[in-house]
């Protein structure tokens, strides 16, 4: 299989040569070229270089360690960030039930709280990406941590709808948006061939958070009440976020005068087509996570308690799916692996229509959680692989996540409208069709990138 080696993933320097050529030019071994120290720049963001002025970012990318204690410490930081952003958002279903039962919020208004939170988690990446490229990593982590923890603590005091919008939707959503993209971007500066695996391990934090936090809520809320249960969750978030606050450290040289928008992205057609396919895919990919519990209970397939643990099963499978398949993604290519996961997504989305008993529903849910987990882990890896300039990684990832945020915002209301008219058959068909069409569009992007070579590793 022929390899495609984008500069951002394989360490090509500004002159189009690889790391060995960089060594020949300088007469130094990689360890001698870049002797990393912590040099504070711009609000605490670090530049790991002894002579940063003599190195460009491409040379740093060409000498990535692809392992070592510091690199794997960044993976732990990324795991924490995913746990406290996407993992936290995965808990909203239990909050929605409480809001409709205890505060008598209309279900559509209650779902808007979580919908806005998810939207901002993606949309705020568009503003945060250029700040990362400019060297403000520490500012992003600290500000995001404060907003997430503060918003959670304020959520415990809320009693009115507008208060939940401010605390949970705006505060937590925006705080998550400042930090959620940092895991794939920072890890791309440390890893080469192990990057998909490292990102998969970090991304599994979202699945683990989606398991642990709902169980904490379910066990504590009947005993100590809603306010103190939310505060306990807030303290868990604070404790786990201290890890990236203290140790997250990208290997990068901040760019001066970074433009807020990379205009070249809009004429990079493989990138544009890939984002369009992502958008369509995400219109339906989250739908089963929102509706499988309701489907199981309303159709008397499972009790309310078992329905809750079906969601936990999906999140557990999602965590596993983000890690195990990535052991082979470096051999067949992350883009190829992503397409395999998206094909499997629409197969299992259609399979929900045939799941009419507990056993079949659990099996389909687990497989669906696993393949979508793999997709979400590889999505930023592919975006970074399509980036032509390592200095624009944060901006490109921000553009991508900001764009698809509108698909996330529209997904749940569209599925709700379909469910009210066409029942759950319509919901599963919507999930299957959108993920299938999105897969087709992303396949076109891959063919554009490889010039129609079907056997190329990319």
UniProtKB/TrEMBL annotation:
GO molecular function: transmembrane transporter activity
Transmembrane segments: 71-89, 109-128, 135-155, 161-182, 194-216, 228-248, 269-291, 306-324, 331-352, 358-385, 397-415, 427-448
Location of this chain's protein in the cell: Membrane
Pfam families: MFS_1
Keyword annotations from UniProtKB, A to Z: Membrane, Transmembrane, Transmembrane helix
InterPro entries assigned to the protein according to its UniProt record, in alphabetical order: MFS, MFS_trans_sf, Proton-linked_MCT
Membrane topology: Multi-pass membrane protein
Residue segments, region Disordered: 1-26
GO cellular component: membrane
Family listed: Belongs to the major facilitator superfamily. Monocarboxylate porter (TC 2.A.1.13) family.
Official protein name in the record: Major facilitator superfamily (MFS) profile domain-containing protein
Organism: Trichoderma gamsii
Lineage of the species this protein comes from: Eukaryota, Fungi, Dikarya, Ascomycota, Pezizomycotina
């Amino acid at each position: 299989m022929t390899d495609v080696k984008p500069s951002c993933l394989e360490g090509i320097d500004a002159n189009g040569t690889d790391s060995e050529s960089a060594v020949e030019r300088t007469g130094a071994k990689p360890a001698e070229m870049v002797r990393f120290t912590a040099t504070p720049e711009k609000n605490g963001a670090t530049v790991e270089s002894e002579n940063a002025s003599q190195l460009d970012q491409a040379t740093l990318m060409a000498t990535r360690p692809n392992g070592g204690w510091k690199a794997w410490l960044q993976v732990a930081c990324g795991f924490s960030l995913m746990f406290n952003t996407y993992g936290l958002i995965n808990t909203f279903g239990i909050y929605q039930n409480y809001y409709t039962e205890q505060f008598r919020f209309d279900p559509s208004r209650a779902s808007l709280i979580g919908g806005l939170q998810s939207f901002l988690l993606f949309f705020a990446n568009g503003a945060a990406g250029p700040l990362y490229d400019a060297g403000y990593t520490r500012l992003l982590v600290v500000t995001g941590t404060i907003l997430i923890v503060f918003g959670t603590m304020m959520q415990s005091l809320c009693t009115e709808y507008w208060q939940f919008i401010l605390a949970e939707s705006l505060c937590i959503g925006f705080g998550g948006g400042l930090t959620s993209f940092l895991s794939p971007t920072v890890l791309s500066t440390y890893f080469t061939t192990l990057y998909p695996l490292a990102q998969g391990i970090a991304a599994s934090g979202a699945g683990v958070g989606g398991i642990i936090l709902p169980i904490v809520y379910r066990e504590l809320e009947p005993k100590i009440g809603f306010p103190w249960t939310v505060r306990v969750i807030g303290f868990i978030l604070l404790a786990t976020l201290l890890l990236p606050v203290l140790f997250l450290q990208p290997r990068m040289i901040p760019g001066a005068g970074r433009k807020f928008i990379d205009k070249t992205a809009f004429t990079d057609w493989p990138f544009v087509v890939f984002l369009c396919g992502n958008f369509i895919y995400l219109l339906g990919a989250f739908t089963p996570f929102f509706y499988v519990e309701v489907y199981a209970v309303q159709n008397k397939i499972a009790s309310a308690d078992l329905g809750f643990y079906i969601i936990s099963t999906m999140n557990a499978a999602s965590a596993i799916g983000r890690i195990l398949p990535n052991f082979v993604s470096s051999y067949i290519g992350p883009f190829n692996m992503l397409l395999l996961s998206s094909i499997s997504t629409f197969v299992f989305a259609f399979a929900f229509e045939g799941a009419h008993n507990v056993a079949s529903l659990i099996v389909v849910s687990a497989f669906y959680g696993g393949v979508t987990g793999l997709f979400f882990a590889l999505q930023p890896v592919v975006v970074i692989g399509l980036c032509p300039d390592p200095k624009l990684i944060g901006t490109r990832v921000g553009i991508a996540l900001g764009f698809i945020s509108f698909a996330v915002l529209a997904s749940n209301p569209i599925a709700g409208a379909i469910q009210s008219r066409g029942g759950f058959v319509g919901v599963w068909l919507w999930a299957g069709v959108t993920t299938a069409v999105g897969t087709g569009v992303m396949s076109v992007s891959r063919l554009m990138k490889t010039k129609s070579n079907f056997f190329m590793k990319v």
